Amino acid sequence: MQRVILIIMLTILVGMVGYSWSSKEPKTTYSSVEYEHVSVLTEARPVTISHIDDNRTNTSYPTDEEEPFDHVAFAEQLLALEGKTLFSTLNLFWVLCQQASNCREQLTLLQDELSSEWFELLSHYPTLSAEWKSVESTMPLESIETLEEKVSVFKQSALQVWGELSHQLFSDQFAHLNFTLSASLIKEVEATEFVSHYRNLLMEWDGQAEVLNADTAAKKYELAISLLPSSLSPAELTSIKTELQEIYLDDSQANNIVAREQQVAQQQQTVVTYHEQLAQLKSSLGVLRSTSHRDWSSQEWNSYYQQEISGFRENFFK
Description:
Elements: H1 2-24, H2 30-44, H3 71-80, H4 83-100, H5 103-110, H6 116-123, H7 125-137, H8 147-162, H9 166-169, H10 171-183, H11 194-204, H12 217-226, H13 234-248, H14 251-290, H15 298-316
Helix pairs in contact: 7-8, 8-10, 12-13, 14-15
């Protein structure tokens, strides 16, 4: 009997030890391994929109390999550009190829895709850009009297630096300059004919409206105001502005323009009044210095003078 009891106790003890050992082992399932693997892939290779197919079912991951330079597509794009966009593209090409240290390789690929003048522009762009900045900073435009001469000097300087492609590069600037030349003629017409001449001018330049910043009715109004000659009388000026507002502005825009012009006029009058009163004060102080305050030392007078000027400014702008 005792022997039977001993066998039973040993059996129970072995079972308890086995249970204790199994409970300490991690319970790893296929499902947990699968999700852990997916998580690692997702963190290591993030999915981006550019790597998702149109059907949104297959997901591919980015690689460390750089995309090959499509020199044919770049050359076609370059030839179609002009103005500021062309300048931006040339700048970007050199920034990126210098970062990748492969400018020579990319230029070699492009040499057969571009004409000699275009390849010359692209390959020598950094040097030409630096040269143009130097020329532009020393261009004597301020000393030139007529607008025609200024335009001529600018175009000639651009041609000397950039060659025949200067017209492609500076298409925006040349359009502005040519428009300015044409617009200068309407300043010579009678006040009653200004609006009709302006509308005809816009029709001639309709294809360049965006370049001229005149692609909306409100912008056309602002452009017209900038072209008004200074020789107009107040009555003529008011008449032309009213006619332009009826053509290009709605009631809300017209009211805003009037309010803004009144505010500007008030500010200008405030400036005029300030300078007039300041001049009067300085004149009065000059009289004091030569009469009742002539015995004051320079230090005493300067202190008094600055105090009076400062007091005037504080009171005026309260």
